[in-house]
């Protein structure tokens, strides 16, 4: 063909993407990743827009959903509604999806906007063309209304990728950087576009294996910055501790965030499995969104995960940190199960806390009797940390969940000192549950021996419940008073833990 062109022939080519590189003599380059491109931040979510209807695309979408059942949010555009609904229903559909996508992307959640998969056809080719035009214009309008700058935009389908680039993104120029996969180019949008420099992945409808979209999304997914580890490293370097507060609703989340902001302190939002079963993904999403938008370091942690599948699901849902609590099992079984789950968590860059020893007391409806209590054995702790490679260890030194007896806590500081030395040797962090009811002097002594995370639940929850018993004007008054009561307790804890003022006027970790 080149020889013919040299003799004056001209050709118009409709080909696969690989033809272009062969024609101009480009050598093969490995697929590009965000690291190659220097994509600088994980603050906003990635946006995947699927307009293609071909069977291959549907299989690819199914594979994506199977691989990311919880960590990606799905928004479906109803084609029947767009194709044959009223102007009002069309506008409502577009407005709902664009607003939802804006909120999700701002919260750092990767979001898929896809057309419903049932193919809608008209009476003839002209009708079909009109339906396609309506659907394409609806996708364009949705993306035009999204104000958040996505971490990347993947457009699936030839017409979809063309229209979104030129009409929704207002791009007239783009630099082809390379490929995400063979036949799937990555553009960098021009300076004249709505989002200059944004990576734009052009994914034709009939290209790639069934797992192709999932492979790209996995490589472009926001790898956790291990904010939980960073928070505790800062605490270790500064010789203070961080408060982890159990939350059950929006008031609890707001109380922790507000107290942390006012005190200039890091904090951890933690969800117990019983609260997770009640609040489901909505509670997790609220915590993640609040953490990402706070101007102080906030991590989101799963507390006391005992069910392996629930823990793995929590990792998929976007928790920064998880606790594997197999303390009810014999030592060897606790070690093996914790080790197995830790490998899975670390492969996703998720921080892991485990428990060795057994605390008595009651938390969220789960009770451990005094005769079941077992202090943490230093020899076992050394083996456990060496074998499991967990990042933090919750220990039992006489601390309890819930309310301490009238004569107060009887903590064994000599044991705590030994455990602190062992966790330090293994580059792990020491955690103490049952901080409600501990005096400031006791807490300072614990911090001196290496405790970097205190779990607090009972005192905050009691403050909330107490306000419910007091007469108020209406529900908003109840909510406001409950939030203020919890915030007061939380702020006081942050002061006692020594974390107040550590992040005043500082950016998020």
Automatic annotation (TrEMBL):
Domain Four-carbon acid sugar kinase nucleotide binding as annotated: residue spans: 47-212
CDD domains documented for this protein: TBP_aldolase_IIB
One Gene Ontology term from the biological process aspect of the record: carbohydrate metabolic process
Extent of the signal sequence: none
GO molecular function: aldehyde-lyase activity; zinc ion binding
A Pfam family reported for this protein in Swiss-Prot or TrEMBL: F_bP_aldolase
Transmembrane stretches, start-end: none
The protein's name in its UniProt record: Four-carbon acid sugar kinase nucleotide binding domain-containing protein
Organism: Ceratopteris richardii (Triangle waterfern)
Lineage, highest ranks first: Eukaryota, Viridiplantae, Streptophyta, Embryophyta, Tracheophyta
